[in-house]
């Protein structure tokens, strides 16, 4: 085969992928702008917002809490095992606190909630698209973006910082349990060293990351569900795409926010 044809085919494939990526980015950006524009225009649906807060925040607390607890405990074990004699009563609490608050708390909470909530939102809205319930809302003079999308995105944006704040405390407590119960560290010294290394910028960065991740996972769930294909296959693809895109964007956003803060 002519090498020129092979190179041309490869470049054409790359070009199609780039154009598809740009097209998807543009559509998601327009969807986000359209969603945010409804914040300034009534009517509002506080009952729907409260229901989503309950679903996203309260019902996600057990899985986020357990994830944070075992992560903090495992992190303390790894620090002590890797540091050996160097892993003093100052090193373990400081690294656990910084690692949980700055990175592991918001990232793991975001990923866990993305797996639980983005998929749920995409499946719910996708099913409504397949069964023409969204068209019925339009017929009844109810804007689907305002009634379905905005409450979910806003609830995820508000609920995730609350979840991350709780997860940070639980994660640090997990490290405390291992350090005090297994390694025999002094409880008062551990708490004092933990508080010494948690500064304002770490807490602010953690909450900013959490709000950003919440917006991302809520938006991706709504976007893929709202644009779901027809039939069970379309809903399944929308659910998968919501989780995958949420996870990738959360990790990318985490890097950019870490770069900006630190």
Q: Regarding quaternary structure, how should these chains be classified?
A: single chain
Structural class: mainly alpha
Please indicate the percent range of residues in DSSP E strands (runs of 2 or more): under 5%
N-to-C order of helices and strands: HHHHHHHHH
The helix count comes to 9
Q: Which percent range fits the helix content?
A: over 70%
Give the CA-CA distance, first to last residue. Answer: 52 Å
Main β sheet profile? none
What's the Cα radius of gyration? 22 Å
How many domains, as an integer? 2
What overall form do the CA principal axes indicate?
Answer: globular
What is the mean predicted local confidence, pLDDT? 88
> Low-confidence runs (pLDDT<50, min 5 residues)?
none
- Tell me the total number of β-strands: 0
